[in-house]
Write a structure and sequence with these properties.
Layout lengths: L3 E5 L7 H8 L5 E8 L6 E9 L2 H11 L3 E2 L2 E2 L1 E4 L38
Antiparallel strand pairs: 1-3, 1-6, 2-3, 4-5
């Protein structure tokens, strides 16, 4: 078992300090990372907490999964490894291609003698 935990269903007001204090009840907390929106800087409602040992991580899951914090029941489980995503624009459709409808926006549209 890994020592990095996923913490979901968090209130947007839950801080890193309050999470660290909460998880310290289960053992040694190595790090807390509340995930925030890249543009607005506002929390997204989940975090990652790294515990000092597997035993501490297991204890934290047992103690805190489903526990109500700031009015919301937390989801606490082992964090899954991050999946690789394609580079920006990887498998996106090409909107300017001739085989897509709506490519020709000028003219008379589908009315008149020159319709396709």
């Amino acid at each position: 078992m890994d020592t990095k935990l996923y913490v979901g269903n968090m209130s947007f007001g839950t801080s890193e300090d309050s999470l660290k204090e909460l998880f310290a009840q289960a053992g040694t907390v190595v790090s807390v990372d509340v995930i925030k929106d890249r543009f607005s800087g506002r929390p997204k409602g989940f975090a990652f907490v790294e515990m000092g040992s597997q035993a501490d991580a297991e204890k934290a899951i047992a103690m805190l999964n489903g526990k109500e914090v700031d009015g919301r029941p937390l989801t606490v489980n082992v964090a899954k490894p991050r999946e690789e995503r394609p580079a920006y624009g990887g498998n996106r459709p090409s909107y300017g291609s001739s085989n897509r409808s709506g490519g020709n926006r000028g003219g008379t549209g589908n009315r008149g003698p020159n319709r396709r």
